[in-house]
Amino acid sequence: MLIVGGGPAGLAAAIAARAKGLRITLVDSRKPPIDKACGEGLLPEGVAALQNLGVDLRDASPTPFAGIRFSDEHSSASARFPSGTAFGVRRTALHKLLLDRADSAGVDFVWGARVSAIDRAGAKINGERIRCQWLIGADGQQSGVRRFAQLGRDLSGPTRFGFRRHYAVAPWTDLVEVYWGKCRQMVITPTGAEEICVSLFSSDSHLHIDDALREFPQVAQRLSGAKPASTLAGAVTSLGRAAAVTLENIALVGDASGTVDGIAGQGLSLAFQQAQALGEALGRGDLACYESAHRRIMRNASRMTRLLLLMSASFAIRRRALRLFAARPSIFSRLIAVHAGEASQDALGAAEILDLGWCVLWA
Ligand SMILES: Cc1cc2nc3c(=O)[nH]c(=O)nc-3n(C[C@H](O)[C@H](O)[C@H](O)COP(=O)(O)OP(=O)(O)OC[C@H]3O[C@@H](n4cnc5c(N)ncnc54)[C@H](O)[C@@H]3O)c2cc1C
């Protein structure tokens, strides 16, 4: 089996497929340790999916967080996860953890080599043709495997830009904080005892974290005098999904298969759940069940992302939603429980969905 892409999705897929006895070559054009712009928050369902793959996130010395807070200039609402724990973890530490696990499971790696001339029977790596029974595209948003297989990509939201930078400052809360500004959001994730990760999401590729801080005075105050602990990194982010994620012996996983906007903080959790489902399908030699599992895995995340993007795009919707969450904490708690994969969508009763619907209609 050939896996194109050795990010979190590719490594997790390799671990899942090795557990089913498949021989795997994983190729990435970059070399470890691979870093990437990311808010670095892993929700409880992502932690659980990793555990199911035999990977204990605790080995990467992650920083736990207990829930999520939304704030704007007028309102604030917090919700704690009902049972599971979420973690902030540096991408490089997560990558090393997954790489060590895949390595000890017997995966073969080719780092620093670009995969080209992809077809159903294999691909070229460093100019040499490699044949494979299964071809897995874990090659990120701009997936070449997806392009070759003509699996398309439907975008159902705007293309936005995400930046992240770490600062040497002790986390001031055990929650991930999402600050809502005018069409942009700043997210704070604890990533160490003396370190936080700040992410910014907006439709402006030139708006960097330092400039945006003017709009988030509470964060600016917390960061005043704090030293940056990493360089600024950025990436495009959007809500979209491949028209299909399998074609004969080809499957897509992670961002190659579909993305939710980074504001949802779910890309990693989705990739690990998909890897698990892909491993099961490969074990049966039948990718059809991966296609349906993938749709199920993406469903809630896509819905939640749509709500978050609506809140981002419309001042009135954001104001009403945040007021509702602050006044009715139980709605926010249930929404966050569904978002974190700790409750099914049914946990949101008809009355609550109606309340949320009114937020949108009244705006
Ligand atoms: C600013 C920002 C903040 C985010 N915050 C969070 C968060 O807090 N929590 C969360 O869960 N998610 C978050 N996400 C989403 C998360 O980062 C992604 O979902 C995740 O990185 C997807 O992993 P992946 O392995 O699918 O893709 P990638 O990490 O993009 O890996 C793809 C790999 O494929 C390789 N590759 C591509 N083409 C080729 C080729 N032709 N040959 C060889 N190799 C190739 C690349 O080098 C790369 O290493 C955020 C995203 C952004 C942009």
Features of the shown structure:
363 residues; alpha+beta; eight-stranded mixed sheet; six-stranded mixed sheet; 36% helix; 26% strand; binds flavin-adenine dinucleotide
Summed up, the helix count is 11
Q: Could you say which overall geometry the principal axes of the C-alpha atoms support? A: globular
**What structural class do you assign from the helix and strand content?**
alpha+beta
Low-pLDDT stretches: none
Bound small-molecule species: flavin-adenine dinucleotide
The percentage helix is 25-40%
User: Rg, please?
Assistant: 20 Å
The biggest beta sheet is recorded as: 8 strands, mixed
**How large is the share of residues in beta strands?**
25-35%
Mean pLDDT: 94
Number of strands: 23
Terminal residue distance: 51 Å
Structure description:
With 363 residues, the chain is α+β, with helices and mostly antiparallel strands. It is built from 11 helices and 23 strands. Strands 5, 6, 14, 15, 16, 17, 18 and 19 form an 8-stranded mixed beta sheet that branches. A 6-stranded mixed beta sheet has the order 8-2-1-12-22-21. The protein has a 3-stranded antiparallel beta sheet with strand order 3-7-4. The longest helix is centred in the C-terminal third of the chain and has 26 residues. It starts with a strand and ends with a helix. Flavin-adenine dinucleotide binds next to α1, β2, β3, β14 and β19.
Provide a quick synopsis of the model.
The protein is an alpha+beta fold and 363 residues long. It has eleven helices and 23 strands.
Any chance you could write out the topology, listing elements then pairs?
Layout: E1 2-4, H1 8-18, E2 25-28, E3 41-42, H2 44-52, E4 63-65, E5 67-71, E6 76-80, E7 86-88, H3 91-105, E8 108-111, E9 115-119, E10 122-125, E11 128-131, E12 135-137, H4 144-148, E13 154-155, E14 160-168, E15 175-180, E16 185-192, E17 195-202, H5 209-212, H6 217-223, E18 227-228, E19 233-237, E20 240-241, E21 246-247, E22 250-252, E23 258-259, H7 267-284, H8 288-313, H9 315-327, H10 329-339, H11 350-362
Parallel strand pairs: 1-2, 1-12, 2-8, 5-15, 12-22
Antiparallel strand pairs: 3-7, 4-7, 5-6, 9-10, 10-11, 13-20, 14-17, 14-18, 14-19, 15-16, 16-17, 20-23, 21-22
Helix pairs in contact: 1-3, 1-7, 2-7, 7-8, 8-9, 9-10, 9-11
